[in-house]
Amino acid sequence: MGHDPVPLSATGREQIRLLAERLAADPPSRIVSSDIRRTVESAEIISARLGMAFDRHAGLREVDVGTAKGVSYLEAASRWPEVFDPAGEGRFPDGESFAEVADRATAYLRAAVIDEREHGGDVLFVTHGGVVRGVAARLLGLPLTAVAAFLIDNASLTTFRIDAGLVNLVSWNDTAHLGGSVAGGRWPSDVGG
User: What is the CATH number for 141?
Assistant: First the structure.
């Protein structure tokens, strides 16, 4: 969806409501959202439940797909295969690459987290799957290819701990708050193992 101003669906709003309930037990000290409509709407739901304001920042935006806007994933992958190379260096025509998104978002997050850590507390960033993957790669010193296949469900929670500059991945794509709600990362019920 890139930068398209797509609103949350009814399912998405319910999933974010469940996430907000979970966060209410141990709220962050600050909330920052991408300024794209679906994340702003998510932040509004969380913000209302936690009784705290949130900031918006363009550094947390999903990849700008440029000319590929409105093109299906399969068609885009066929027309611009270099963009979908796991190394993330291929740029969308008139847009940006996944590597550029990773660098942009990580630069902002480093600055925001370092600043917030000086004041104490945890920061909740409401953002997009591509941003989470890119930031994870950059913060953990991994190539983008290492996280290209990592699943990020809508309304999931990925947690990093930063202590004295050392970054640890605490949880990835945590959807426990969704319970029986459909999440792409759940093991299909009709498969055993």
Answer: 3.40.50.1240
Q: Is residue 117 part of a domain?
A: yes
Q: Residues near 21 by Cβ (< 8 Å), separated by ≥ 6? A: 49, 177
Q: How far apart are CA 12 and CA 155, in angstroms?
A: 7
**Is residue 144 situated within a structural domain?**
yes
pLDDT digits (tens, 9 = 90+) for 15-46: 999 999 999 999 999 999 999 999 999 999 99
At 170, list the tokens: 């605490």
Total structural domains within the chain: 1
Task: Say if residues 34 and 6 touch (Cβ distance below 8 Å).
Answer: no
Closest CA to 163 of 110, 117, 112: 117
d(CA 182, CA 172): 17
State in Å, rounded, how far the first CA of the chain is from the last one.
34
Residue 71 lies in a domain: no
Residue (of 131, 172, 173) closest to 156 by Cα position: 173
Q: Which domain holds residue 58?
A: 10-62+101-178
- Both tokens of 96, joined, read 């940006």
User: Does residue 191 fall inside a structural domain?
Assistant: no
> How much is the pTM?
0.89
Which two three-digit tokens encode residue 53? 């304001």
